[in-house]
Amino acid sequence: MTSNPFFERSALPYELPPFADVREEHYLPAFERGMAEQLAEVAAITSVAEPPTFANTVVALERSGALLTRVANVFFNIAGSDSTEGTDAIEAEVSPRLAAHRDAIYLDPELFARVEELYGRRAELGLDAEEVRLLEQYHIRFVRAGAQLDAAGQARLRELNAELATAGTEFGQHILAATNAAAVVVETPRELAGLAESAVAAAAENARGLGREGAWALRLQNVSNQPVLAELADRDVRQRVMAASLGRGLGENGALAVRIAALRAERAVLLGYSDHAAYAVADQTAKTVAAVEEMLGRLVAPAVANAQREAAELAAAMRADATDVELRSWDWQFWSEKVRAEQFSVDAEALRPYFELERVLRDGVFFAAEQVYGITFQERVDLIGYHPEVRIFEVFDADGSALGLFLGDFFARPSKRGGAWMNELVSQSRLLGQRPVVVNNLNIVKPPTGEPALLTWDNVRTLFHEFGHALHGLFSNVRYPFFAGTEVPRDFVEFPSQLNEMWMSRPEVLANYARNIETGESMPAELVERMAQAERFGKGFKTVEYLGATLLDWAWHRVPGPDALAGTDAEVFEEEALRKAGLAIDAIPPRYRTGYFAHIFSGGYAAGYYSYIWSEVLDADTVEWFSEGDASIREKGAAFRGELLSRGGSVDPMEAFGAFRGRSPEIEPLLVRRGLAD
């Protein structure tokens, strides 16, 4: 193929990929040429006659692989957000080839010899701080990739990496198929009692898409506790929804999970670690499994105690309503909403008219970013995204200078995987002269044509959260692409996104976007206060749900070698792991069960799901900082952006946090926030 939109840098603003010209048949040739070009670039580095220098080795590595980066950034976003049978086939083919390509670079003995020589002389090279860190991080990456193994060890490592790439791709594709197939179809409107009219209309549209005209289909999201469980009055339907949710993927993905965990355990031992968790955290801010386990150990017992108190309240409410049944997992959310409505006069469904997507986006998310950082947004309807629903905004700095592009892909569809995430289509780099192009993917239920998209409070939170990741990418101001944007340790990357959630409930921000779609009136102040009180109810449930998933992830990756999983049944393993953790609570299933735990089996969070609460320690501490002192919000925003958001991975994140905060992070604000301080 001689004509391919990926073969050259895009001529569009900010090098936005030319989506109008991209077709499925372009991906594989671009991957193949991209890998070949990068291997040729690496060969040119190792064939240089002169001794290694920072410029001819490390900087040359940073410049390599431009074509491969372009196609990979676009393709893997498409594979997650708008997959087809064609992209699934390409992903299955290319994933193990990319793993082999990475091994070809990081297991190249001549290339590693040059890096290691420079690393040994790094104090003599006259490098600045960012250059020293880049050299050190490259050396770490080579070593962790197996560069110091003997030939037999490297050969086995290549096999393991290829198998893991294939298995992870299969796992993710199975989740999407299983989630779509698990949609719960009902035949009568009375079975949907409690749902908003817009949700009922969406369910009818879903059923039509499945060829079930006249029925209603409740599509699942990729979590255990489905949002509709809070609304459905019919207990039998709730039970069906929960059963469908919890049962997804246990067939094919159960066996795949065992295989993936075993392969990771073998790889960790091969690389000199006791298990995959030890391997994973060594390169994170946590550093050791003991540090992670010490923090998690402080949280389980008080979280369970809080959840038990909440369960007692729910059971009492059920008895008062003459509902003489045991509280089960499919009851918890429904009765939680009833208790909230009764105790705090907060009806989740009645809140939706205050949270219309367009207003939340422009007058909430964008408004907060303007107040804190001074940036502004202009929609670019002249630019084309990868799907008709994708919207593109140009972002300008406080001085009016161009900063980057933000793409929003907000609605759920059968071709999009569950959850919400941020991708970088173009990463910022002064070396390469590139400015950021970032995308947020969400899974908001799309309303019928002509009707507004009304959000839940959780949807609002997700919108602010993912935009925090987007800001991390947009504010990146580093020289080398290795450090750009969210290229930071996994247990630090959630810090900026979780912190950005604070603005959703700040009075000046909430008052700006929480306006009734019919009357235009702001949400009453007393309702805002009741919402805050209602949010505190349910912290036990949410913490236990999260910890269940976290410690399940941890159990899968504390396996001390592949033989320990011989003959393992995934469901039995999961039950035993939750029991040992003290979290085997039938009424509160973990946020993700093994069969659909995409974060750890097909994403980058293996032995890293603890990252959310680890980062929340930093987040809760920083929220306090934003409320202290006499500096204005803009002054504080400038400090936070300059010291943390703009630095990416170019500095040690915990050292940067310590310099920014004036001390190490403290866990107490997190304990207070989650009701665990006592």
Annotation keywords:
two-stranded antiparallel ribbon; Neurolysin, domain 3; mainly alpha; Glutathione S-transferase Yfyf (Class Pi), Chain A, domain 2; 678 residues; globular; 26 helices
Description:
By secondary structure, the chain is mainly alpha-helical. Among the domains are: 13-106 and 108-144, Endopeptidase. Chain P, domain 1 (Glutathione S-transferase Yfyf (Class Pi), Chain A, domain 2); 182-234, no CATH class; 252-351 and 538-609, Neurolysin, domain 3 (Orthogonal Bundle). The protein has 26 helices and seven strands. The protein has helices at 24-46, 54-63, 66-81, 85-106, 109-120, 129-144, 151-181, 197-209, 235-247, 252-270, 276-281, 289-320, 329-344, 348-351, 357-373, 457-474, 490-500, 507-513, 525-536, 539-556, 570-581, 598-601, 611-627, 633-643, 653-661, 668-673, and strands at residues 184-186, 216-218, 376-379, 391-396, 402-411, 421-426, 437-444. A five-stranded mixed sheet has the order 3-4-5-7-6, with helices on both faces. Helix 1 runs antiparallel to helix 3, helix 12 packs across helix 20 and helix 17 packs across helix 23 (611-627). The longest helix has 32 residues, at 289-320. The chain is globular and about 85 Å long. 45% of the residues are buried. The mean pLDDT is 95.
